[in-house]
């Protein structure tokens, strides 16, 4: 293997992530040449439209997968929270790297924490997961639409369009914008998205030699946590634009998983927790998902997703 080509979007965050993997690979395999293949994704072209409306599950991922399937590139680096639950035939995601900060960050010029925001303050986020959890703790807040790349979002905050915004801490840290973080939201109060803060590497299923080479970047503990988190979303047939949070941690071989499904306005909130052996990661996720459905999460998801069918219903 002489060259590994990384398909990447052109956003600052995507380029950072691709370069990060490039450096890791070059450190381990100094004889291999690692190149970036930058492309515009469908998701970037539509960045101003509400994601829920353009309805694209994995809009950001599709273009990169095309490049892998056509042989234009060999691997794609993804934020695990943006990766769809299913892969096209011929592709797989054999590597999940060590998780960085899984938390969401509170960024504001007028309050030092979420609790200190004045009554009725305007918070920017377009994530239903963040919206419902914000309103759970602070029903007085007004949550306004906010999308775009990390720098675009910060620019809109700075321009005074919002009193505060919520972003993934990992994204801010990767872009060396940690200084912009006013406060960290505890994962107990703001359950992160499945896979948040972890990177995954997708490649062609048949590339055995490449998969072996990439395996040095795999972190099995992160992978177990992310497997449990993603199993919740998969079982609920959630995709990435639904009000679902799922967060797992490990203490030795014991995995603790917490998940939430809520009405976007927080008028209904369902939460579930479980603990079990790391080897049961997927089952733990599915068990939590079943419990959420029993509590009524299905009604919330049904309203938001067309054609949602309750996985607990017999066929
Ligand atoms: N939805 C966009 C996205 N995808 C991954 C991250 C951050 C990095 C990560 O979670 O790994 C972000 C930015 C954000 O949500 O603020």
UniProtKB/TrEMBL annotation:
Positions of the Porphobilinogen deaminase N-terminal domain: 4-211
Keyword list, A-Z: Porphyrin biosynthesis, Transferase
GO molecular function terms listed in the Swiss-Prot or TrEMBL record: hydroxymethylbilane synthase activity
Reported function: Tetrapolymerization of the monopyrrole PBG into the hydroxymethylbilane pre-uroporphyrinogen in several discrete steps.
InterPro entries: HemC (IPR000860), Porphobilin_deaminase_cofac_BS (IPR022419), Porphobilin_deaminase_N (IPR022417), Porphobilinogen_deaminase_C (IPR022418), Porphobilinogen_deaminase_C_sf (IPR036803)
Organism this protein belongs to: Zooshikella harenae
Family: Belongs to the HMBS family.
Protein name according to UniProt: Porphobilinogen deaminase
Family matches, as SUPFAM superfamilies: Periplasmic binding protein-like II, Porphobilinogen deaminase (hydroxymethylbilane synthase), C-terminal domain
Designated gene of the protein: hemC
């Amino acid at each position: 293997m002489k060259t590994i080509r990384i398909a990447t979007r052109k956003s600052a965050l995507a380029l950072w992530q691709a370069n990060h993997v490039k450096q890791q690979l070059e450190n381990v395999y100094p004889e291999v040449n690692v190149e970036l293949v930058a492309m515009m994704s469908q998701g970037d072209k539509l960045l101003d439209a509400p994601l829920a409306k353009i309805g694209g599950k994995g809009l950001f991922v599709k273009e990169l997968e095309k490049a892998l399937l056509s042989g234009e590139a060999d691997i794609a680096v993804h934020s695990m929270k943006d990766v769809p639950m299913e892969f096209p035939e011929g592709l797989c995601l054999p590597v999940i790297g060590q998780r960085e900060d899984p938390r969401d960050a509170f960024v504001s010029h007028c309050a030092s924490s979420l609790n200190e925001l004045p009554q009725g303050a305007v918070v920017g986020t377009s994530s239903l997961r963040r919206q419902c959890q914000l309103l759970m703790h602070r029903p007085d807040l007004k949550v306004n639409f906010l999308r775009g790349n990390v720098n675009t979002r910060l620019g809109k905050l700075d321009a005074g369009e919002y009193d505060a915004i919520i972003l993934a801490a990992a994204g801010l840290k990767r872009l060396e914008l940690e200084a912009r973080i006013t406060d960290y939201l505890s994962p107990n109060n703001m359950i992160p998205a499945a896979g948040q803060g972890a990177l995954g590497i997708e490649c062609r299923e048949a590339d055995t030699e490449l998969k072996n080479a990439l395996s040095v970047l795999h972190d099995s503990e992160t992978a177990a946590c992310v497997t449990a988190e993603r199993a919740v979303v998969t079982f609920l047939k959630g995709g990435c634009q639904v009000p679902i949070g799922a967060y797992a941690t490990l203490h030795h071989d014991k995995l603790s998983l917490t998940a939430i499904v809520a009405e976007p306005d927080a008028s209904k909130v369902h939460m579930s927790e479980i603990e079990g052996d790391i080897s049961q990661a997927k089952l733990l996720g599915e068990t939590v998902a079943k419990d959420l459905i029993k509590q009524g999460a299905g009604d919330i998801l049904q309203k938001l997703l067309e054609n949602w069918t309750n996985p607990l219903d017999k066929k």
